[in-house]
Write a structure and sequence with these properties.
By secondary structure, the chain is mainly α. The protein has one domain: Methane Monooxygenase Hydroxylase, Chain G, domain 1 (Up-down Bundle), CATH 1.20.58. Helices cover about 85% and strands about 0% of the residues. The radius of gyration is 16 Å and the shape is elongated. The relative contact order is 0.13.
């Protein structure tokens, strides 16, 4: 499985936008609740990027013949993040 670089770049651009929004919200004195919602959205988006990269790495290490095993490893790994 090859890493979908376009998808990763799109997700990272969204994360950058969310982080910039958090910075603007803090600078403008927005409420802590609204800031935390944006922080959690950015964190979740970055987490998804990490999972996509990890999925690719695990699939590459395991190879196609061990797909089921690599899926199990990925599930266990994602639970750690």
């Amino acid at each position: 499985m090859a890493l979908d670089l376009d998808s990763i770049h799109i997700r990272l651009a969204k994360v950058q936008g969310q982080v910039a929004a958090v910075d603007r919200m803090i600078a403008s004195g927005d409420s802590a609740e609204r800031i935390l919602v944006q922080v959690n959205a950015a964190k979740s988006a970055l987490h998804k990027v990490a999972l996509l990269v990890a999925e690719d790495a695990i699939a590459e290490l395991a190879g196609d013949e061990r797909k089921e095993e690599s899926d199990t490893i990925l599930e266990r790994f994602s639970a750690l993040l």
